[in-house]
Amino acid sequence: MIRVLVVDDQNIVRQGLRSLLEMMSDFEVVGDAENGQQALNVLAQLAQADRLPDVALMDVRMPVVDGVAATRAIAQQYPSVKVLVLTTFDDSEYVAQALRAGALGYLLKDTPMAELAESIRMVHKGYNPLGPGILQKMIAQLPANAAAKPPAALAALTPREREVLQLVARGASNAEIARELYISEGTVKFHITKILSQLGVRDRTQAAIVAHSFADWL
To answer: Cystine design at 42: which of 24, 27, 31, 34 (Cβ 3.0–4.6 Å)?
Structure first.
């Protein structure tokens, strides 16, 4: 059972998400909040009851405390709670701020419910789902000459690690990478951990951005 906290300033959105998620057997909505400050208050109460959510669905633009600030606070105070942003705003700056603050994924509110549910499951497992076009928007914000200066860390990757990185950049899961390269999922996890450390990035999303930035070199 995946415990979920819903954070959105629109009551109809909160109630709608709660109803839809609770129709699925693997989700339990343990609370909701209308802004970031209220979310932190709810989390404090849930922590006392040993009922912290596994995933927080977080809007970006909210009164009192916005989603980016709340995500940053959650990452610091409740690191076991994974944040998945769900918003109407696909501006690249919002995306970058949310991911830097600690969000694992970023989706738009027009995402089909089945896809949203699967993204929550992915975030719970540590993956980084991004809505259609989100990664491309972030890549488009990179300096035009970025590809001219590949970091030395990329040169240190083994041929196998480069193959894994290319598949990560395509959005492949560990299972898909394992099937593609005929290796075990455990080996995939080992390679990804090493790649993240080598590149000095926090997660698969950041690794994918690096891979897209230097695609010609890879």
So the answer is: 31
Please, where are the H alpha helices in 23-173?
36-48, 67-77, 92-101, 113-124, 134-140, 152-155, 159-169
User: Listing from the earlier edge strand, what are the strands of the sheet with 105-108?
Assistant: 27-33, 2-7, 55-58, 82-87, 105-108
188 CB contacts (<8 Å, ≥6 apart)?
A: 164, 174, 177, 178, 181
* Domain contains 43: yes
Could you tell me if 91 and 9 lie in one domain? yes
Residues spanned by the domain of 166: 152-213
The whole-number average pLDDT for the span 190-212 is 84
What is residue 31's three-state secondary structure?
A: strand
Residues 129, 171, single domain; the answer is no
Do 48 and 136 have their domain in common? yes
Let me know whether 28 and 68 are in one domain. Answer: yes
The pLDDT tens digits of the residues spanning 8-25 come to 999 999 999 999 999 999
The C-alpha atoms of residue 47 and residue 12 are separated, in whole angstroms, by 26
Q: Are 28 and 116 within one domain?
A: yes
Based on the structure, what is the number of domains in the chain?
Answer: 2
Contact yes or no for 83/104 (Cβ under 8 A): yes
**Nearest-angstrom CA–CA distance, 149 and 152:** 9
